[in-house]
Amino acid sequence: MIDSVLDVAGLTRSFSQGGETIEVLRGVNLHVGPGEIVALLGPSGSGKSTLLQAVGLLEGGFGGSIKIDGEEAARLDSDGRTRVRRDKLGFVYQFHHLLPDFNASENVELPLLIRDATRAQAKDRAGELLTALGLGHRLTHRPSQLSGGEQQRVAVARALANRPALVLADEPTGNLDEATADVVLAEFLRLVRGEGSAALIATHNERMALKMDRVVRLHEGRLA
User: What is the pLDDT of residue 2?
Assistant: First the structure.
C-alpha cells in the first residue's frame, strides 16, 4: 500500500528577468498522505501557483523530484505527464474554466469520456457528483445559466470525476463573495473527503486554511 500520494523533494524553480535570476522555489519538500487535505498558505506572489503548476506537471523547467502516487513524474515525457494528469490528478482553479457550449453534466462527463468511459457511465457519474453538490436539478443548464457558486461546484465535480488520487486547487473560491465561498468550500471539502482523494489547496486566506487537515506556509520560496 502506498503511504504517500505526493512526495516533493528539493523542488526548485527560477526565472531570468532583466538580467537577474529570481528564485521562486528554493528546495521545497512536501509530503501529502492518502486522503489528507493540505492548505498551501502564502500571500499573492509567494510562489503558490508555481508550486501547483510543478506538482500538476503543467510546466517544465523545475529541478528536484515529484512523486505522484508512488511514481516519479518530474522526468516523464509529454505523453507520460498527460497520462498522470488524466489518471491521477484533478484540478480546480479560481476561475471555473467550464466549456460554455456544454451543460453542467456534459462538462463533468468530458474527462470521463476522455478516459474511455461509456456515455452511460459518464452520465451516471456526473449526475452522482452534481447531485451530491446540490445541483441535481441543474444538470442540463449551461454555465451562463448558473450562478458563480454553481459554476464552481460544477468545476469541483469535474475535478473529481475520474476519482483522482490528488486534487490540486488554486484559490478555488477566490472569485466568490465570502458567504458563497464558505458554502462552496465546505461542499468541496466534504466531497473530497467522501471520495477519499487527497488535496493540496493554495490560498492566501488564513481562515479558509484552518478548515483543512494541515497548513504549510510558503515563504521566500521555502515551505515552513
Answer: 59
